[in-house]
Amino acid sequence: MRTNILTAAAVSFLTMTAVAQKDQVKNAEDALEDGNYAEAKAQLQVAEANLSELNDRWQENFYLYKGKAYMGNGTDASSEDMKTAAEALKKASEMGSEEATEALANLKNNLIQSAIADQNKQEYASAADKLYTSYELSKTDTIYLYYAANNLVQAEDYDKAVEYLETLNELDYDGSGKAYTAVNVESGERENLGSQQQMDLMIKTEQYKEPKVEDIPSKKGDIAQLIARIYISQKQYDKAIAAMDKAKSTNPDDMSLLQAEANMYYQMGEKDKAREILEEVAEKDPSDPSTFNNIGLMYAEINDNEKAVEFYEKALAKDPEFNQARVNMIAAKLAAEKKIIDEMNGLGMSKADNERYEELDAERKELYKTVLPDLEKAMEVDPENKDIIQTAMNLYSNLGNQERVEELKAKM
Question: In terms of DSSP bridges, do strands 208-216 and 177-184 run parallel, antiparallel, or are they unpaired?
Answer without folding.
Answer: antiparallel
